[in-house]
Amino acid sequence: MSDGTTSDGAVDGRDALLATARAWRDQDPDDRTRAELDAVITRVESGDDAAAADLADRFAGRLQFGTAGLRGALGAGSNRMNRVLVAQAAAGFAAFLLGREAEPSIVIGYDGRTNSDVFARDTAEIMAAAGVAATILPRALPTPVLAFAVRHLDVSAGVMVTASHNPPQDNGYKVYLGGVDRGSQIVSPVDGEIAAEIERAAAAPVTGIARSDDYREAGDDLVMEYVRRTAAVAGTAATGRQPRVVYTALHGVGWEVARRVFATAGFAEPIPVSEQSAPDAAFPTVAFPNPEEPGAMDLSFATADRVEADLIIANDPDADRLAVAIPVDGGWRRLSGNEVGSLLGWRAAERAREADVDGTLAASIVSSPALREIARVHGLDYVDTLTGFKWVSRVGGLLYGYEEALGYLVDPDVVRDKDGISAAVDLLALATELHTAGSSLAEHLVAFDERFGAYASSQVSIRVDDLATISALTARLRRQPPAAIGSRRVDRVDDFRDGFGAFPAGDILRYWLTDGSRVIVRPSGTEPKLKVYIDASSTEGDARARRASAEAAVADLESGMRGLLA
C-alpha cells in the first residue's frame, strides 16, 4: 500500500484530484468555467505538471465562509468564486434562514463586477425555490443601497454580490441579517452556523438544488427612498457657496446613485471623471480599484487640475467607502481615513450637542484615538470595536462610527454599514459650510489640531505569498518582545492571543509607548497581509508644532517597525 511518498502515491493523489475535478465540472451550470476546468483536466491527463499544480490549487479546500461572507478570485474549482460555489452558499444560507424562522425573506443586490448579476439571480432562484421570499434589486447598485433595503423592506436577511475594492479578477458574497441584527453584517457564531449548512448543501451536486423564478424585482421607488433619506444628511448646507467638486466612481456603481443624492440635497452636480463613471468589470484605468492605492486617483487629480476644482470625492467600486482629496501646494493630497473620520466625527459630535442628544461614537481599534478625544470633549460615550464594520455598526446608541480604511457611518438610522455616499454628502456639506465662510478643509484640519491636539497615523503592510509567514512574524514578536520601537521605549503590550478585556482571542499585538504613542500588529482580514497601525499625538505648542511632533513620532515608529519585521 502506498504511504503517499512514492510515485504510486503521487499517481493515486492525482487520480483522486482528477476525480474531484471531473465531478465539479459535471455539475457546473456555467459554460465558461466548465470549459476552463475541462481544459485544465485535459492537460493534467496528458502529464502537464504545471496544470496539475493549477488543479491542486483550485481544489485546495473551499473558499471559507466567514463574517465577511465569501470573497476570492473568479474561476472553476472549490477554491474560487463561481456558480457552483454560489449555489451551494445560497442553498446553505436558505436552510439556515428556514431553520431560524417560519417565513423568512431576503433581498439581494449586486454590483458591476464580472458575474455579479449572475450570482445574484442564482441566489434569488434558489432562495425562492427553498421557500424564502426573495427580492432582487433592479440593477447593479451600491452596497449601501442593499444595506438600506434590508431595513427598509424589513426582511430577514440580505446578500450583496461584490468584492468591493478587490482586484478585478475577484468577486464576493456579503451577508446581512435583519430583525434584531438591524441590517448589520453577520458576526460569529452565525457565520459558523451558515458555513455548516453550506457544507451540508455541498455534499450533493448542485444540479439537484431546486430553482424557481418566483421572486420579486424591487422597483426604483426603493432606490429613490434611499436617495431621499441619504440626501437629508446635508441639511440646509447646499444653500451656501459651494466648492467646485470632482467625483470618481472608479469604474464602479456609485455615480448613478451619488449624482441623484447630490441633486436631491441641492448640490450642484459634481464634475465626473468621465473615463471612470460607468461600471466596468475590467477596471481599465486603474491597476487596483482601491482609492487608497498609489495611482488610483491620478485621473481624478488630472480632471481636478483641468477644471480648477476645490475638492475631489471618490467612491470605491461598490460605493461603501469614501476617499477625499484637497489641493495643497499646487498639487493634490488624499486625506487619510483617519483624517476624514475625525472631521466627520467632530461634525457628528457638534450635531449631537446642538440637538442635545446623548449617544456613542465608535471606531475600530486600529483607527485613530482622535475620535475618543472628540467624544470626551463633547461629553459623549466612546467604544472601541474589533476591526470590521460588522462590529462598529452594532454599537448601542451609535451616533457615528468609522474605520480607518475609508469606511464611515454617518446616519445609523438609515444604514447599518459603512456608506460612502452618505459620507460624501456629509463631507460635501461640511466643505460647503467652510467655503461659504471663506475657509477650507485644509484650514479645518488645522482648527482640529488646535481644538483636540494633532493626531498622526501611518501603516506598514507586508504582503505575503504564504499565510503561514504572518503567524511566524507575530510568533517571533512574542518570543522576542521589543523593549523599544524606534527611539521610543515600550511601556506595555496588550496581547489578544487568548482574548483581551471584552475582545475575543485574535492574533493581535498592541504596543503602548512611554510617550503615549500606539502600535498595533494584526493580520489583514481580507488580504494576505500583515498590517501595522501606528498612531501618535501631541498637544504641545501651536497647531504647527503639534503636527510636526506627532508626525515625527509616527515616522520614528514606522522606521522601527520596519526594522523589527525585516
Number of individual domains: 5
Terminus-to-terminus distance: 45 Å
CATH superfamily membership of the largest domain? Alpha-D-Glucose-1,6-Bisphosphate, subunit A, domain 3
Beta-strand segment tally? 22
Q: Which second-level CATH architecture of the largest domain applies?
A: 3-Layer(aba) Sandwich
Q: What structural class should be given to the helix and strand makeup?
A: alpha/beta
What's the shape?
Answer: globular
Q: Do you know the CATH topology of the largest domain?
A: Alpha-D-Glucose-1,6-Bisphosphate, Chain A, domain 3
Characterize the main sheet: 7 strands, mixed
Strand content: 15-25%
Q: Indicate the CATH class of the largest domain.
A: Alpha Beta
Pfam families: PGM_PMM_I, PGM_PMM_II, PGM_PMM_III, PGM_PMM_IV
EC number: 5.4.2.8
Keywords: Isomerase, Magnesium, Metal-binding, Phosphoprotein
Family: Belongs to the phosphohexose mutase family.
